């Protein structure tokens, strides 16, 4: 990076790595092996979580020095940040975790089992069933169309090695396994992405735009889309 920093977030968009911090935004091109300074956020945020959606970055975090969450959007084409008017956000969290899946943004707070879901296309918030335990300082990632959250401190504030899995089709959480050892303040990422057939991707996107919380279509109907 162009300067040392902590408490920042990162996201990949169109093959470029973006680093988002309270006071600056940078972009890395691995082909050219070069860094570029971009416009900083309009409002500095501490410990924000950044995701991508439809060619833009969405960063959610607490305003510097305040216990209130905001969401800001970065457009690479204009190199500008804007404040997202997304209605009442979830309660304040020191280090929120967020990922995108199926056209939706899943938002997990550090001190709660509740999971909030934001539909950018409809500007709508909702919830999914709660996790089996809290994951204070845990890590959230997407793999194979499912959410995985791992480690952190549990409900008794003991370090946990538990990995939970959420399946959007069944709308249920389950224990996927255990880490080699309890860990916290870590991060996780899926390197090998499992691509779905194009027709199924379009169907998932359509569901996200129309009614993301409607029951999933029967598997036999999905077969017709292949």
From TrEMBL:
Coiled coil segments of this chain: none
Keyword Repeat recorded: yes
Keyword annotations: Kelch repeat, Repeat
Superkingdom, natural source: Eukaryota
A Pfam family it matches: Kelch_1
One BP term from GO: protein ubiquitination
Chain segments carrying region Disordered: 202-226
SUPFAM superfamilies: Kelch motif
PANTHER family, A to Z: KELCH PROTEIN, KELCH-LIKE PROTEIN 21
Protein name per the record: Kelch-like protein 21
Native source species: Thamnophis sirtalis
Organism phylogeny: Eukaryota, Metazoa, Chordata, Craniata, Vertebrata
Protein encoded by which gene: LOC106551093
